[in-house]
Design a protein that fits this description.
InterPro entries: MoCF_Sase_C (IPR005302), MOSC_domain (IPR052716), Pyrv_Knase-like_insert_dom_sf (IPR011037)
Protein name: MOSC domain-containing protein
GO molecular function, one term: catalytic activity
Strand content: 25-35%
Largest sheet: 4 strands, antiparallel
Helix content: 10-25%
Pfam family, one: MOSC
Organism: Panagrolaimus davidi
Length: 136
C-alpha cells in the first residue's frame, strides 16, 4: 500500500480549517508500506505502474479507509471526533459507478499495488511512475 506525503499534508490543511474537531494526522495513521515525497496531493490516484529502485509495482485499486485511521498511532486509542474519517467522507468518496458501488461510503486514500518485478528498494530511491488516462 502506497500513499503520498502531499496527500497527508493536504488532509492536515483541511483538518486545520475545521471550526471544531481540529486534529492532525501523520502518515502512520494510514499504515502504508511505502510513502512517497515530492508529488501533488492525491497524484497516486492516477498511477498505473511504479518503479522504485529495481522493483516494479502495478497499482491495481484504490485503498478504502475505515475506522482504523481514527486510531492515534502513539496511544492506540480511538479519536473521539472520528477524524480524519469524517472529513475524508466529504471529498474522497469513489466516483459514481462500479467503484462507488464497491466501496460505498468508505473514503479512498492511497493505492494498493502488486509486485511485478522483484528488486531492492531503499529510503530515498527515486520513484518513476507511469500514469493512467483517468484516476482510479
Amino acid at each position: 500500500m502506497l500513499i503520498t506525503e502531499s496527500s497527508v499534508i493536504e488532509l492536515n490543511e483541511r483538518l486545520n480549517e475545521l471550526k471544531e474537531d481540529k486534529c492532525k494526522v501523520s502518515t502512520r495513521n494510514f499504515r502504508p508500506n511505502i510513502s512517497v515525497k515530492g508529488t501533488k496531493p492525491f497524484d497516486e490516484d492516477w498511477w498505473n505502474e511504479v518503479k522504485i529502485g529495481k522493483a516494479i509495482f502495478s497499482c491495481y485499486r484504490p485503498c478504502s479507509r475505515c475506522i482504523f485511521i481514527t486510531v492515534d498511532p502513539d496511544t492506540g486509542f480511538l479519536m473521539k471526533n472520528m477524524q480524519p474519517l469524517r472529513l475524508l467522507r466529504t471529498y474522497r468518496i469513489a466516483p459514481k459507478g462500479k467503484l462507488c458501488d464497491f466501496y460505498g461510503e468508505s473514503p479512498i486514500f492511497g493505492v494498493y499495488m502488486i509486485l511485478k518485478k522483484e528488486g531492492r528498494i531503499n529510503v530515498g530511491d527515486k520513484v518513476y511512475v507511469q500514469k493512467k488516462l483517468s484516476p482510479f
